Amino acid sequence: MAEEKHDSFPAPGTFVIGMVFFTLFVLFYFLNWKWLSMIWIVG
Amino acid sequence: MPITSPEKYWWKPADKQEKIWITLSLIWCLILFAMMPLWHIYGKQNPSAEPLKIRPADFMKVSNVFIEKYKVGEESGIAIVEPPAGVDVYLRGQMWNWVPILKLKKGVSYKFHISSTDLMHGFSLQPMNMNFQIVPGHDNILNFTPTEAGTFHIICNEFCGINHHTMVGKIIVM
Amino acid sequence: MTNAAEFRTCPITGKKVFKTTQNLMWINAVTAVVFILIGGIMALLVALTRWPAVHLLPADLFYRFLTAHGLNMLIFWIVFFEIAGLYFGSSVLLNVRLATPKLAWLAYLLMLVGAVMVDIMVFTGRADVMFTSYVPLMAHPLYYLGIILFAVGALIGCGIFFATWAIARAEKTYEGSVPLVTFGLTAAAIIAVFTLSAGAIIYIPTFLWSLGIIKNLDAAMYRLIFWGLGHSSQQINVTAMVSIWYLLGALTVGAKPVNEKICRTAFVLYILFINLASEHHLLTDPTLSSAHKIANTSYFMYLAVLASMIHALAIPMALEVAQRKNGYTKGLFEWFTKAPWGQPGFPALIFSLFIFGFIGGITGVAYGTEQLAIKSHNTWAMTGHFHGTVVGGTTLAFMGLTYYVIPLIFRRELIGKKLATIQPYIFGIGIVLMSLGMGAAGTLGSPRRHWDVTFAVSIIPFSFDPTVILFTTVAAIGAMLAVTGGAIYVLVSVLSVFFGRKMAANEAKII
What we know:
The structure holds three protein chains of three kinds. Chain A is mostly helical. Chain A is built from two helices and one strand, in the order H-H-E. Chain A has helices at about 1-5, 10-35, and one strand spanning about 40. Chain A is rod-shaped. Chain B has a domain at about 55-175: Cupredoxins -  blue copper proteins (Immunoglobulin-like). In chain B, strands 2-3-6-12-11-8-9 form a seven-stranded mixed sheet. Chain B has a five-stranded mixed sheet with strand order 1-10-7-4-5, covered by helices on one side. Chain C has a domain at about 380-510. Chain C is built from 15 helices and two strands. Classes of the chains: A mainly alpha, B alpha+beta, C mainly alpha. The interface between B and C is large, with 82 and 89 residues. Strand 1 (about 40) of chain A pairs antiparallel with strand 10 (about 140-145) of chain B, so a sheet runs across the interface.
């Protein structure tokens, strides 16, 4: 199924790199929110 | 080629791969956007939202009054001040001190007024690493609630002259 | 002065290269390299001082050289190179003579005089104000005047770009739409115009204030308008860099944009929204309301983020499609592993793209979020972020392009091709280590622009967790590698430009 999907992409390797990038982006972004939630309350 | 003119009709529909990526990116951008107002509602850490101007000379005066009133001691020539709960706290950045040293209580909310009487300074509370820009002529109003007891330090992370790296302040939370 | 109509035809691209354009590109590019040399020496000294085990310079020289490092790299090196790029993108790519070459020389002289004035003021200790020169920190009036002259020169350069564009259009020297690289550089030039205008709006009153003519300058207002220059100028760099990515893709593997519509739309998004992002420098300032911050730094900015995400797909996609066409079709990554890694342009492109995206881009979006700025504002993590964007990204892309400009435009064969080939690797790995080291130390609280993170001489004793010192050392080692890479770049480009074998008129050899 996944193979079939890749075949229709002109650049399947780029798609994989893109997804790795996207995953790291999401992880780093929410990790920062996690760190923020651990400090003193301020507002 | 990107260095030659494209064919005459280059306004072409996107490929499936491009469509998936752009849709995903757009959704992600909207999530990035939503996080900020959501954190104002549900989160407990937000920057100042009360812009207020104050002349450096006036800030010097009110912070000195604050120090005189609640002073409980001195360390390395800098006053130690213990404000009761509910009192506005004045913290002054100046070349090259944070004045005064503060004694606070865990779990109590304090309304901080932080400003500078000379150059720009960077309020950087360690080790939690909380950072705010301190601008002369402007009052950075922040409601802090210390969540743990201990000794904390304020370093300066905005260049403020030759002894910038010696500028350290202290907050003791009991 | 050479005849404005004199040109040769490039044996590889078939483009007309006018003598005047070539000379102006040459002088701007060579000057850029001189400034990266000055900035690079400063980088070495600053890094050796922040390295706690070495701690080379005294405090006053550290802050002075840090000021010089920022200005020489971020402004002088990059903008001189970009002006050369604008003349290339208009005159060479559109097959047309450069508009008003005399004015272009004037623009160059203004920039040069401005840059030299600024450097003299900084190095003689009359402008220890950092790159940002935040009011009320005051420098010598000639410092501000130098920056104004430089900005006016750059603005004239942009004007010449548009004028050359107009001549090409009037004389129909190209058919249909302009090439994508020219389109991208046009976006960069448009952003440059409002960026440099913000610079004029803030530096002219600051200049008058330093002369004592204006008495009061609001520190917060200065910050707001300064970043209209300070950050937006980085957006010029981003836009120019993306254009150069497309160019390097074409030069190295023959990549062409998969969908022109998507690439061009992304550039338009940059023009429309990227300048608003400047305000994310003020997220922890006491001057703006939350709604204002969210509107300016978020929703609209994220459309600029969207544009970057689009380029992040379009560029590797173009490379992959071209490589698959070149016959590397096996599996998911043969196109990548069998790429021309032994040619300086390709590793420069890939390192630039990956460092910009994975390090500079991701951290930039996180730190530019209203609340998250509390954790990162003015820490060394910020320094790590922008060394990922503007050094690992922009500078490395410019370096990679230089190795093609020298044979293609200046018609000199490269001296030290092997050195040139390993240079992007050394520089890229150095910047990765440095940015990550800075990011980790900064996340633990280490401040930017700081002479002594061990706080050996503070009145109230304080010390960081020892891991901060560890990460600082990692960053310093990365900086040493990057400086080595930078030195190789300067060496190869200067030797080649002055002593490289002159190529024959019909010699169709790229590298």
